[in-house]
Description:
The complex is a heterodimer of chains A (101) and B (563).
Chain A: H1 6-11, H2 13-46, H3 48-51, H4 63-99
Helix pairs in contact in A: 2-4
Chain B: H1 36-59, H2 63-68, H3 75-86, H4 89-102, H5 104-114, H6 116-131, H7 136-140, H8 146-180, H9 184-232, H10 237-247, H11 264-278, H12 282-285, H13 294-325, H14 335-341, H15 354-403, H16 410-434, H17 442-464, H18 470-489, H19 492-498, H20 514-531, H21 535-542, H22 544-553
Helix pairs in contact in B: 1-9, 1-15, 3-9, 3-13, 4-5, 4-13, 4-15, 5-13, 6-11, 6-13, 6-22, 8-9, 8-15, 8-16, 8-17, 8-18, 9-13, 9-15, 9-16, 10-13, 11-17, 13-15, 15-16, 17-18, 17-20, 18-20
Protein name (chain A): DUF485 domain-containing protein
Organism (chain A): Methylocella silvestris
Transmembrane segments (chain A): 24-47, 59-83
Amino acid sequence: MAVQGYESIQRNPKYIELVKTRSSFGWTLAAIMLAIYFGFILLIAYAPKFLGTPIGTGVMTIGIPIGLAVIVSAFVLVGIYVLRANATYDGLIRDIVEESR
Amino acid sequence: MIRLNTIVPAAALAVLPAAAFAAGDLSGGTQQATNWHAIFMFLAFVLLTLGITYWAAKRTKSAAQFYSAGGGITGFQNGIAIAGDYMSAASFLGISGLVYLSGYDGLIYSVGFLVGWPIVTFLIAEPLRNLGKYTFADVASFRLGQTPIRILAACGSLVTVAFYLIAQMVGAGKLIQILFGLDYWIAVVIVGALMIIYVTFGGMLATTWVQIIKAVLLLFGASFMALAVLWHFGFSLEAMFAKAVEVHPKHLAIMQPGSLVTNPISAISLGVALIFGTAGLPHILMRFFTVSDAKAARKSVFYATGFIGYFYILTFIIGFGAITLVSTNPMFLDEAIVAAKGPIAAIKGGSNMAAIHLADAVGGDLFLGFISAVAFATILAVVSGLALAGASAISHDLYATVVKGGRANEKDEMRVSKIATICLGLLAIVLGIIFEKQNVAFMVGLAFCIAASCNFPVLLLSMFWRGLTTRGALIGGFLGLFAAVIMVVLSPAVWEVTFGNPKGTAPFPYENPALFSMSLAFVAIWLISLLDNSKRAQLDRAGFDAQFVRCQTGIGATGASAH
């Protein structure tokens, strides 16, 4: 079922703002995640020795924190998105829905 | 003391995509002595979940409740369930085994599995919840020709589910044979029968709770093992790594990337399959309809990403723990092989057993039984989700929309879905037995690849690209599906390993073709849609604005139904 009166919603400045900010934010974060991941893969493919550089005097290599950082970055990026969506988008959506009644 | 004097067959690794299968010994498995601790704990799990199914069955009267638990699952619960779908027995045993074998390389796999989730959060989760009702085909066909797109989406779903299911069934049979000492066919029949019971009686509600319970047990067990390992080294990672480097025959090489990723194109193609395949797996997408609204859908991926990331960090520690505590203990090693190939290769049962032996090493017999039971439960929970996704494609997409033209009555639709579940369950048992001796290692990789090349492009473009037309989606989607299957058949994993052709003769050189098949699908969909001037195409484009308003705001979206 499509939305009744969607034309007027499309003209609502809040809707225009929501679409613009949310889309660009989502695609930007997605691009960052892909860049981090494929950057990591290229590092593995072309510079495995760099990842094998020891940190300090022990056996720990720089590759371990980098790998773990990629895992943590995925969670952090999702967290950033959720925080912003909760703080901004949900309010905008609520207003748009109210105003469309 | 329970001895695991067996070799993990290649198929037990089947639950892990692509090259990860390189790990482990490929010889056939033999049965071991019956493991009573494990069987007792598994029976407790089965009783509990059957109780839940009984409770769920009383609440599962309508189609909405059967397919989506009436939208009554909370974001947090759904997050755990999604994580559960992803933390399969293979992620657990396969990745920790890979870390055990080659150290750092195991981490590369975990990362690939995880990064699909942020993409799902940013682009898929909320629009999907706003537009769909029970299956992702609801979304893909929202403004397009119902019949052709439903058929396409149902094919994409069923083929994905079928390959995934066969791999899980064969892996389950082999694993249970080793862990519990049951015959292969008995193990397959138990898994198939329990799956049919959970899904036909309890629908999505029971499937979700089985998944939640298993995920909690698995997270608890893995946390305990990782903590025990860290405790052993005074909570010093450096001390653990130092000991691992000392005892592992590869020494310092385990602390950096090794031979797993040598060809960048191959690695990128695998990455594409893992990331975009995750965003096209029908049993995962279906979970977003079990929550009340887009906000809860968003929340659930947040929790899921957290749990999955945490779990992969645990498997990394468990793998290193196994290097230090399992490969140094003669109890877990095969003496004949130690002399010839060193302690790492000599692990009883192959590298997949690393986490299982570690459970024994840190927690004794009882904990070993617990971890074995959790591994069984994990397989059961994952196949139930798959069966439900397959049954929904048959009843909701094919029967209700294509056959009945959207005018099926709810009772008939539910009856069809239950019959479909039973048929899928029986088919899974039969295929599981037929494929026992086959090498099915390529099947999960293929499932991810099809999901990335057929389901994902059609879904993404239907939500975000005004220009998509029915003809473009239909031809491009099927092209992606066939390209994925053909390229996998021509790849080394099938051409050389399964068909037994000589090494180096595979016409397609890469292990996973997703980079090529997915690009092909996108280009074909784009080009054909662009050139499409049919009446239908005009309708398709005209429907975009109204769809996009609902996609963004959720106005008109199906809410949670009252119980």
